[in-house]
Amino acid sequence: DAGVTQSPTHLIKTRGQQVTLRCSPKSGHDTVSWYQQALGQGPQFIFQYYEEEERQRGNFPDRFSGHQFPNYSSELNVNALLLGDSALYLCASSQKSGWYSNQPQHFGDGTRLSIL
Amino acid sequence: AQSVAQPEDQVNVAEGNPLTVKCTYSVSGNPYLFWYVQYPNRGLQFLLKYITGDNLVKGSYGFEAEFNKSQTSFHLKKPSALVSDSALYFCAVRPSGSARQLTFGSGTQLTVLP
Fold this sequence. Notes:
With 116 residues, chain A is mainly β. Chain A has no helices and eleven strands.
C-alpha cells in the first residue's frame, strides 16, 4: 500500500519564476493538505483540498495556489518566487471522515525547493 | 489562536537512559495532541496521539506521552533511549471536534549518544 508520494524531490528555481509541486495521497484518502517547512522550523499550514476545492487556508499570500484532481492527487503552485520561499514543502493526506476526528495525517517526504 | 511551544531546541541523552521531550500548548476547548518524528530528508512520521481518556498514551517504537491538562503539557517520553531515536520531534495540536488544521511546534532535535 503506497503512502503519500511527492514529486519532484528537489527543485532549484530563481527569483520571479513559477513552480508546480505534485502530490499523490495515500490509498483511500480523499483530502490533501500542504505545509511549508522552513529550515529549523515546524511545518506551517498552507491550504487543504477536498472534492477539488480549497477548504481551508493558512496565512499565505495568493501567490500560493493549488488544485486537486478527480483522482484526489494535488498540485501546489507558487508564482513570483521569492528567496523566502525556499523550504521543504510537505503534502499530507487524510480522509474527510477524519477532519473532526482524531485520525492523524499521513505525510510524504516532501519537495525541497531552493530559490537562487 | 492555537499554539505549541517546544522549549528545548536540542536534547542530548545517553543511550539506555530515559528521555523526555517537552511540549506545552494553547487551544480553545479540549485538545487533540500529536507527536511526529522527522528523520533527515524525510517527511513526518506519526508517533502517538492524545484524544481523551488515560493521560498516559503509548505509541510507536516504545514512546509514550503524558497529558497534563492543568499544566497544558504533553511531554514525550521513553524509558530507555536508542541511538536510532536520534531525530527531530514535533508536537502538534488542534481543537477537538474541529476541522482546523494542525499547529506544530518548532521542533526539538533529540541526540542519543552511544
